């Protein structure tokens, strides 16, 4: 599958075991509960840290709390270099944080996945299964394979998982998203907006726990962008799934998202930036 989720190799850096042990005693404290109140969330992250270095420069991502509720779009807004790609790589489980207290995924059926524990135990098989089954990903340019029809692109994640879908399932959502006439065509023969809606359908048809959308409207005009995000919002509500939308488009955020988070970069030194993800 031509996607960052399946094509990028797992980045292994640091360990979270010590951090988990250090914080275990704090989780039951009144102070911790007051700082991080309980929420019903498909994705719940607490006290995450990731440091990256390149060419003598250092970048730290700090996430004290982040969550995404089922049935909603959670927007993340930030400028280039603020940590959006790093955050998405971690949320999609292709990059390991240096430390994290909590990283939970809760499936709609009630199954609970402690991703922080999987990282601590370096259970790569379970992490791979989680990436395949629980995460849908929409790239900026769609990421459709050019040699497959739109229908076969949409069905690819289900084929990888060995799941069968009847034609009615595909037809229903293709109709909702307005791409029925595109299903038999190759990606190069449809518009940018149609490709992004096909990518959206591919990301949600295998019933993931959460969909991650990386600037999915960056190459689209305003009207086509609204169609794509409107389709994502409908899918979240209809299927009760969560979506994390990374975007620069404040108008889309205000119109479609239920909550908004933003990056606050802090220059610590001439070659050192620390970026905090905070609720807006």
Automatic annotation (TrEMBL):
Gene Ontology cellular-component terms for this entry are: plasma membrane
One family from Pfam that matches here is: ABC_tran
Q: What keywords would UniProt list here?
A: ATP-binding, Nucleotide-binding
Instruction: Using the record's annotation, list all stretches that form the ABC transporter domain.
Output: 43-277
A GO MF label: transmembrane transporter activity
Of which family is this protein a member?
Belongs to the ABC transporter superfamily.
Q: What is this protein called?
A: ABC transporter
**Source organism per UniProt:** Mesorhizobium helmanticense
């Amino acid at each position: 599958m031509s996607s960052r989720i399946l094509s990028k190799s797992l980045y292994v850096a640091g360990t979270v075991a010590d951090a988990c042990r250090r914080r275990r005693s704090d989780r039951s404290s009144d102070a911790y509960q007051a700082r991080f109140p309980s929420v019903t969330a498909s994705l719940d992250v607490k006290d995450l840290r990731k440091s990256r270095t390149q060419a003598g420069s250092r970048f730290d991502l700090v996430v004290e709390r982040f969550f995404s509720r089922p049935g909603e779009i959670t927007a993340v807004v930030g400028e280039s270099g603020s940590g959006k790609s790093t955050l998405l790589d971690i949320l999609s489980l292709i990059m390991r944080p240096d430390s994290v207290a909590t990283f939970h995924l809760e499936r709609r059926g009630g199954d609970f996945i402690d991703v922080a524990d999987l990282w601590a135990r370096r259970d790569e098989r379970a992490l791979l299964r989680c990436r395949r089954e629980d995460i849908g990903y929409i790239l900026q340019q769609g990421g459709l394979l050019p040699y497959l029809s739109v229908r076969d692109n949409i069905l690819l994640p289900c084929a990888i998982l060995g799941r069968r879908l009847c034609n009615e399932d595909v037809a229903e959502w293709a109709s909702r998203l307005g791409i029925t006439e595109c299903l038999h065509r190759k990606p190069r023969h449809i518009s940018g907006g149609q490709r992004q809606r096909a990518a959206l359908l591919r990301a949600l048809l295998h019933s993931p726990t959460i969909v991650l959308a990386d600037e999915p409207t960056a190459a689209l005009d305003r009207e086509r962008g609204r169609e794509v995000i409107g389709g994502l919002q409908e899918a979240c509500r209809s299927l009760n799934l969560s979506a994390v939308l990374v975007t620069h488009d404040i108008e889309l955020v205000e119109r479609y998202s239920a909550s908004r988070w933003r990056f606050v970069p802090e220059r610590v030194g001439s070659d050192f930036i620390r970026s905090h993800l905070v609720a807006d």
